[in-house]
Amino acid sequence: MKTNDDGILETRTLWTLDGFNKNKARVQIGDRIKLPDFTVPETEIKGQTEMSFDTLKVSDKAVIVGKETNGDFILVFEHCLFASAVDLNDTKDFEKTQLNQYLSGEFLKAMQKVGIAGINCGLLSYDEVFGEKRLAHFKKDRNRIAFDFEEDFSKWYWLCTSYKASAADFCSVGDNGYALYYGAGFTGNFVRARFVLAA
Length: 199
Description:
It is a single chain. The chain is 14% helix and 32% strand. The protein is α+β, with helices and mostly antiparallel strands. The strands form six sheets. It has a six-stranded mixed sheet. It is globular and about 45 Å long. The mean pLDDT is 92.
């Protein structure tokens, strides 16, 4: 893979992390960043029923999907990284779920350790993907569809938005890009992590 003097890989839309950091004013929505590889250690998250995460090796790109009101960049991993429940104890508040504790804890620490200076890490929200003011990248419906690393089938992936106040159901994106929902304990959906990098 060729890198030019600006740190751009192959085309203007695929950046190295260093190239992104040096050229933030030129980066556009839909551009991708080749992230450094990182490994998240095996992790146990407490709860009435504990939730285990195996050692995870990540080698992927991230897509710039929008910007925060302060100009910080919102990114999502290009691929669905692993299958997981949101919470095995039917927690309704995403901030308190076992999956969020993992993503904002050990997962984010592993990213930061290799120089990916994520401000936070979690999941996309329903409004960011489907709402009237959805993120710029998701205004094109095709961009909601995501694959695992084998790229033979599109996958369902979780969103951080609860579906009903009375039940521990969370919204998700189906393999066809449509909105769905499942119980927090369902282990068949995938995780496509969202994170923020400073402008």
